[in-house]
Design brief:
With 321 residues, the chain is of the alpha/beta class. It folds into two domains: 5-142, Rossmann fold (3-Layer(aba) Sandwich); 150-318, no CATH class. The chain contains ten helices and 14 strands. The strands form two sheets. Strands 4-1-2-9-8-3-7-6-5 form a nine-stranded mixed β-sheet, covered by helices on one side. Strands 10-14-13-11-12 form a five-stranded mixed β-sheet, sandwiched between helices. The chain starts with a strand and ends in an 8-residue tail after the last helix.
Length: 321
């Protein structure tokens, strides 16, 4: 399934607006914020249609997946936007993650807990808010607001000069970032290790570079830790390292591929946009001098000219002069 979909759900008491554009969207919020009511409205409309007094506007069918025969029901669904409440017992099950991979559906999941088995984007974590003086009209805003996809910059004036640069990637991405930041650069060896690297560091200023397209389950823990620890750490979260290479225009890439990825990254083939960008770069660089492999960076990407192209599309606040 591909595409970007606007969803409008309302009755005479409440009105919701939501846009989904990836296979996994996470809805967060405190108790009584309206998350469960949203799920209830969709379920009631699905059961009773227009006679429910509820209106659901979306070009794709919206449905609710509950604990009852969830595997059987999910296996029969296609081209739907599936809403799941945090009370669903299967949310953290490996079998559910396996069924999400390769699914021809989008999933909107209400959960305050991190779902570590699912590679969802920092960009697709939303919290509910009212959009008028009346509490009737509700929409969803990003929980982690970004400026050039840099997080936690509020206490840093001007450019960041890190004493330590932690990279999620330990392969091609790490090789590139090490050329930019030198000996200050260390590899975490996977997204699950970034938190521990930040926590154990005794450096004054830290920059952590992660693949934002699949880092959603880890970002909350890191941001909560930084808020209470007082450590100065900035999180830079581009979609992925491969996205940076494509954005740098090292090989020719149609603008729409990067600006409207939702129309290209088919959820049946790609669990995350990170996977899509990696596949796109590998396939489209095969017959060029910039043939890409994730495990080891092609020497042609290490030339000063190419490194400068990559640095130019990174935020200037984190590029040392």
């Amino acid at each position: 399934m591909v595409g970007k979909f606007d969803i409008e759900i309302y009755n005479n008491r409440v009105h919701y607006f939501l846009t989904v554009k990836r296979n996994i969207t996470i809805l967060q919020g405190d108790s009584a914020s309206g998350k469960t009511e949203l799920i209830r409205l969709i379920g009631e409309y699905e059961a009773n249609g227009n006679s429910s007094g509820i209106t659901v506007k979306c070009s794709q069918k919206c449905t609710v997946l509950t604990n009852v025969d969830w595997e059987l029901r999910l296996s029969s669904m296609t081209q739907r936007i599936i809403f799941i409440d945090e009370t669903a017992r299967f949310l953290k099950a490996r079998s559910f993650a396996e069924m999400v991979r390769g699914s021809d559906n989008y999933f909107v999941i209400v959960s305050r807990d991190a779902l570590v088995q699912l590679p969802y984007s920092i960009e697709e974590i939303y919290g509910i808010r009212n959009v008028s003086d009346s509490s009737k009209y509700k929409t969803y805003k990003k929980v982690y607001n970004e400026m050039y996809k840099i997080y936690n910059l509020t206490d840093i004036n001007g450019a960041l000069e890190p004493d330590l640069v932690i990279t999620e990637d330990s392969n091609s991405g790490f090789e590139c970032y090490k050329l930019i930041y030198g000996k200050k650069c260390e590899a975490a060896g996977g997204k699950g290790n970034v938190y521990d690297c930040i926590r154990k560091s005794d450096k004054n200023n830290t920059l952590a570079i992660v693949d934002g397209a699949a880092f959603g389950s880890d970002v909350g823990k890191i941001m909560r830790y930084l808020s209470v620890s007082g450590k100065k750490c900035v999180l830079y979260a581009p979609e992925s390292f491969e996205f940076l290479l494509l954005k740098a225009n090292i090989i020719d890439v149609p603008k729409a591929v990067l600006d409207e990825t939702y129309d290209y990254a088919d959820s049946k083939r790609f669990m995350s946009w990170e996977e899509y960008y990696t596949d796109y770069l590998i396939q489209n660089s095969q017959k060029t001098v910039f043939k890409y492999a994730k495990t080891k960076l092609n020497e042609n990407y290490k030339s000063p000219k190419i490194i400068e192209k990559i640095k130019r599309i990174m935020p200037e606040q984190i590029i040392m002069k």
